[in-house]
TrEMBL record:
This is Cupin domain-containing protein. Residues 1-26 form the signal peptide. It comes from Streptomyces albiaxialis. Keywords: Signal. It comes from the Bacteria. The keyword Signal applies. InterPro entries: RmlC-like_jellyroll, RmlC_Cupin_sf.
């Protein structure tokens, strides 16, 4: 596997998948306008789905509150991603060239936001139970910014 492909598999963010997965719950917060995700490749090995996606978050937009059934690994290709957990606190600011990991489960509700002036572009590797949605929407946990 190439170094570039391995690096691309390191970011998660999160990303815009809240609305891109097609899964909704009552009170869910949708991704902002212009948030896009594109599947680059996917493969199933045993009971796991490995899905590589490129997520683009325009300036001033966010992914909406969500969580994942599996672990995500992401890499920031461009921009700066601000990541917040369900306590409304920042749990990371990820600049271009940095990686992040999002843990699985509904106890890990989060949102990714682009507080900068240019688009955030993420390469995200989803490691999910076979057949699981990319993400599951969640209601805003009470934060005043989204």
């Amino acid at each position: 596997m190439s170094k570039q492909r391995m690096r691309a598999g390191m970011v998660a963010a999160v990303t815009a998948v809240a609305t891109l997965s097609g899964v909704a719950t009552a009170g869910a917060t949708p991704a902002g306008p212009g948030v896009e995700g594109k599947t680059i490749w996917q493969k199933t090995v045993g009971d796991k789905d490995y899905i590589m996606r490129r997520i683009t978050i325009p300036a001033g937009q966010g992914t909406g509150w969500h969580f994942h059934s599996g672990t995500l690994h992401g890499y920031v290709q461009q921009g700066t991603l601000s990541h917040f957990d369900s306590t409304c606190e920042s749990d990371g600011v990820y600049k271009e060239g940095s990686s992040l990991t999002e843990p699985a489960g509904p106890q890990n509700v989060h949102i990714g936001r682009n507080l900068g002036t240019r688009p955030v572009v993420l390469d995200v590797l989803y490691v999910l139970p076979h057949g699981a949605p990319l993400s599951e929407d969640a209601p805003n946990p009470g934060c005043d910014f989204e």
